[in-house]
Amino acid sequence: MPLTAEKMIPVTEVLEPRARDSWTHTREGEHRGYIDSDRLRELWIHTGTACNLACPFCLEGSHPGDGRIPGMKLSDVEPFIHEALDMGVEQFSFTGGEPFVIRDFVNILDYASQHRPCFVLTNATDPLLKRRHKVLPLLDNPHPIHFRVSLDYPDAARHDVDRGEGSFDKALEGIRWLVDQGFKVSIARQSDPMEDPLQAENAFRGIFREWGIPEPLAFTAFPDLGTPGSDDGSPEITENCMEKYPTRESRAHFMCTYTRMLVKKNDQVRVFACTLVDDDPQYDLGGTLAESMDERIMLRHHRCFSCYRFGASCSAPT
Ligand code: SF4
Asked: What is this structure's pTM?
């Protein structure tokens, strides 16, 4: 049964709201739900918020020249890659902005894929297309690279309204090139509240046929996650709500149990809880991966409700 706001109104232990810390307590004074981390399996690296596109719905608020999160350099991430390897990490994953806008990104990806499988979120438009000659040699690295390309809707005009004219065709050109070279590719699409997922994905497959792209590409559908600093009014998650996920196994789909994300703040690299919460400093868990895994993560951010209710996850096997 869907969990409604009404169902989450606390029935016990209502405390004086202002006497409580908003990190640990809801507006109504109940204890918040939380996640204790398990072990680091996937390390995300936020390459920076600069992007060649300026989509109004972007959960990162990215656009050309944006510096909310500065660009990563290889020298920034190298020590964390080695710390993660020492902790048994299984995958390195990258998000932006558009990673290929960042000058050092191909070097970072080259370095990471010497050590573990990699996963890259990209719009597969000009920044990737211009660097094809640099990306191709990465196929020979010891570990595979999986690209997840954003293709919002199976409708060029609707996709291009927000991403800019010609973006749909460029992304398809990027997808076709990646697939033709032998890289693994999947698609990040946007979900419509009332959609029939099979119908939506069949429409994509028809377009792939027209473009000569093999059809069995996997899809991940995302709800609207809001822009940075926004609050969509989602219900707050209390400790009682978490009774729905009582065991370690049942909580395993929350990315904060097994991932961390590196985010550059000014000149320092900080470790955040997951890929969805870089706009709230309370999810900054420290300057090393080891210390970040000891922190209890309170489910305060409105995007935590997407994890709670829909199992939203940015992760994918490589
Ligand atoms: S957004 Fe999801 S993965 Fe991130 S801290 Fe909240 S519950 Fe955990």
From this structure: 0.88
